[in-house]
Design brief:
The chain is α/β, with parallel strands linked by helices. It folds into two domains: 9-32 and 43-171, 3-Layer(aba) Sandwich (Rossmann fold), CATH 3.40.50.11890; 204-425, Rossmann fold (3-Layer(aba) Sandwich). 53% of the residues lie in helices and 10% in strands. The strands form two sheets. A four-stranded parallel beta sheet has the order 2-1-3-4, with helices on both faces. Strands 6-5-7-8 form a four-stranded parallel beta sheet, sandwiched between helices. The mean pLDDT is 96. The structure holds Double cubane cluster. Double cubane cluster (BJ8) binds next to α7, α9 and α18.
Length: 427
């Protein structure tokens, strides 16, 4: 990631990026990455792959996407883990998660959205409107979803600036809700077939299910290894891996994570860890942290604690459940997709008791000393659900600190003080 390197300039120009602003963004991100990531001591050797991928986040991977497009493949962008990636792959398209983790293009975004909109929504508007994101520009279709009110109303406007399709996601888990979601999955399948001109067959879908499950299994294995004390990997690195999972080639990425897990297993056997023995163990819970939103992990680990898990869509909520690989027919596979995706415990659902159970489960399995509940300001689902999380964790005797923040660094000192005070009270 370098603001100086312009070997991709022509490609970015073709994608209609604002080259000056884009160069500035890469320069800032590169510095941020050096400070937060490359300054860590004792990182795993396998993280070099992640450093490389992130270094080429707007370079090599975009080149791969443009080459795939030249060969006739479509690129489909998503903002939510509810969108079944397996269908996108089975339609022979490339699926990329569109990140929205920086305060970029806010001025342009605020011309269309209220100022007090959640940072994630403002960020995906900003990246598009300020012409900063080559992923968004490369997309033939961007898939939104009716999860929170901010997103679903936002997509009505976003559709004026990018080819947008919205999937309806139910707000509960009744049989009627599942039927609605199944109808939406089928509608999405038709949309993809129309977009790509390819038929989604049972064979293609079975292969896509296996591929995406492989990535989930690799991330589950990595997540389970973090139960070791000392933890073999920092929370910052684990978050980065989960972030990169959304845009890297799934097969290549799974191979790299599987190798990394082998290295982690060796560390665990040797009782080696990234944090000093006795470091307080923190579980993060709440809103997703998209690239390059590394603020909180940086502050937490800067306070001497170590993050051992993320109960988040960029974390365990995205990887916990696999799609059943047994059905051999298309109908059975669609059912299996619906079953799996309806298990997601996003705070947009009501009631959402499964999420409370999962937080407790994760805290116990990962031997966390405390939970940091993280919500983006103006995110009603997570800021409100934080109260129920607190009540449940109090009942379980698990300490919790509730934080609301955004992407700005203006509150970093204040957050740091609160996190340090919380860590001191643990164990
Ligand atoms: S399944 S968590 S990825 S919706 S932070 S935009 S909820 S106001 S991101 Fe999410 Fe899908 Fe749910 Fe996961 Fe709205 Fe909240 Fe902003 Fe959010």
């Amino acid at each position: 990631m370098s603001g100086q390197d312009n070997k991709y300039e022509q490609m970015w120009r073709k994608l209609d990026l604002d080259l000056g602003a884009h160069d500035q963004l890469l320069g800032v991100l590169g510095q941020f990455y050096n400070d937060i990531y490359l300054s860590q001591q004792g990182r795993l050797k396998g993280m070099e792959y992640l450093d490389f991928v992130l270094g080429e986040v707007h370079g090599l991977r975009i080149q791969e996407l443009t080459e795939a497009k030249a060969r006739g493949r479509k690129v489909v962008g998503t903002f939510c883990v509810f969108v079944p990636e397996e269908l996108v792959l089975a339609a022979e398209a490339v699926c990329v998660g569109l990140c929205a983790g920086a305060e970029a293009g806010y001025d342009q975004a605020e011309q269309h959205l209220p100022r007090n909109t959640c940072a994630l929504i403002k960020s995906f508007f900003g990246f598009r409107l300020a012409k900063l994101c080559p992923y968004t520009s490369a997309c033939d279709l961007i898939v939104g979803e009716t999860t929170c009110d901010g997103k679903k109303k936002g997509y009505e406007i976003f559709g004026e600036f990018a080819p947008t399709y919205v999937m309806e996601v139910p707000q509960g888990k009744s049989a009627a809700a599942k039927a609605l979601f199944k109808a939406e999955v089928l509608r999405f399948k038709n949309k993809l077939e129309a977009l790509t001109g390819k038929t989604i067959t049972a064979d293609k879908l079975a292969a896509a299910i296996k591929l995406v499950n492989r990535r989930r299994r690799a991330l589950q294995r990595l997540g389970a290894l973090r139960a070791a004390d000392p933890s073999p990997i920092s929370g910052r690195d684990a978050l980065l891996i989960n972030q990169v999972a959304f845009y890297d080639d799934p097969e290549r990425f799974s191979g790299a994570v599987e190798k990394l897990c082998e290295e982690m297993e060796d560390r665990v056997k040797a009782y080696q860890g990234i944090a000093p023995g006795g470091a307080k163990r923190i579980l993060l819970s709440g809103c997703p942290m998209a690239v390059p939103n590394w603020k909180l992990p940086w502050l937490v680990e800067g306070s001497g604690a170590v993050i051992v898990g993320e109960e988040s869509c960029i974390g365990a909520r995205a990887t916990r459940d696999l799609v059943n690989e047994e059905p051999g027919d298309l109908e059975g596979m669609i059912e299996a997709l619906v079953e799996r995706y309806m298990k997601i415990d996003c705070a947009c659902f009501t009631p959402n008791d499964q999420r409370l159970d999962h937080i407790v489960e994760m805290a116990r399995e990962l031997r966390a000393d405390g939970v940091l509940h993280y919500a983006l300001q103006f995110c009603q689902p997570y800021t409100i659900e934080a109260q129920r999380v607190k009540t449940r964790l109090d009942a379980e005797g698990i300490p919790m600190l509730r934080l609301e923040t955004d992407y700005s660094l203006a509150d970093a000192e204040q957050l740091k003080t609160r996190v340090e005070a919380f860590v001191e009270t643990l164990g």
